[in-house]
Design a protein that fits this description.
The two termini are 12 Å apart. The strands form two sheets. Strands 10-9-8-7-6-5-3-2-11-12 form a ten-stranded mixed beta sheet, covered by helices on one side. A two-stranded antiparallel ribbon has the order 1-4. Helix 8 (244-255) links the parallel strand 9 (223-228) and strand 10 (261-264). It has one domain (10-296): TIM Barrel (Alpha-Beta Barrel), CATH 3.20.20. 31% of the residues lie in helices and 19% in strands. The longest helix is centred in the N-terminal third of the chain and has 16 residues, at 77-92. By secondary structure, the chain is α/β, with parallel strands linked by helices. The protein has helices at residues 10-21, 77-92, 111-123, 141-150, 164-171, 176-187, 205-218, 244-255; strands spanning 35-37, 39-43, 48-52, 73-75, 99-103, 129-134, 154-158, 192-198, 223-228, 261-264, 280-285, 291-296. The protein is globular and about 50 Å long. The structure holds iron/sulfur cluster (SF4). Residues 1, 56, 58-60, 63, 65, 68, 104-106, 135 line the site of iron/sulfur cluster.
Amino acid sequence: MNMIDTSPNMAHRAHFVRQHFGSAESSGTLLKGFVDVPFITLSLTEPCVWLTLSGCNFKCRGCFSSARDPIGEPMTVERLLDFIEQSTRVYNRDTPLEAAVITGGEPTQDRDFLIDLVRNLKMRVGLKHVSLSTNGYLLDRSYVKGLKAAGLDVVKLDIKAYTNSVHKWYTGLSNRPVLNAVRYLSECKLDFRVETVLMPGVVDIDEIERIAIFLAQVDPQIRYKVVRFTPGEAREKVARRPSDDEIQLAVDSASKHLINVAGGKACVQQFAAPEQREAKKWIRVYPDMETETIVAKPFFKKESFTKETICSF
Ligand code: SF4
């Protein structure tokens, strides 16, 4: 999932679209070759589009994504590419798109669809950079190889918890496939980074350090980010919001084992000096071409990072 899923109108709009286009999913199972798309989101400050594929195999208690449930229009890859091209032409810019972030929900659930989508984004649309945001559960070795061969540039993978009982309690499933996905990504040399949400009392600093130790055993150069839990956006308020000091302590703990560790809120400008940070604007486009504008205020808090990029995957 991503940090721009939380619009109050999104669930209503996507539900409308699901009702309108819902015949392919009325039994809860999509026809082969179709994936539910509730909306896409065009950046108005960068040549980038976020593609949201709905539905998820996890049931995270602190999930803040309305796209966790299968909502939106069932689309083929061809229909989604047309939707992107039409939206870009109508709403966006004179400059062509350069990058796409594929997110959800959980976008890996239909392997053939995702690989075909990545391939077409690179070959047909001509994007320079395509990234994937995933919980990693379904990424076995052949899937990782297929994504790399299709041209995927980078993966952002969440490790929700290292202790399996905590992971099962929080998501409903084991973390073993997720940890294996980290190994496969490293083995296949597909660029990736890992994120964990710090949730006091659920995923604490010691758990962050366990994840860092695991990652360091795979490769101490793996980029790792500690993300702040924001209970106001969560389905279940399973934890309080961690303080800046707690985030910093978690970053320091992970930094004992890993070289590239960052902390803070998901998807913020972390290398730019505060005075250089600008409000980011997106336009969300629904399959019926209705839109909604989203503004993310700049994040000015002083934080300490070793390495980070801006929303670029
Ligand atoms: S992986 Fe968890 S947080 Fe992400 S969409 Fe699925 S249930 Fe929500």
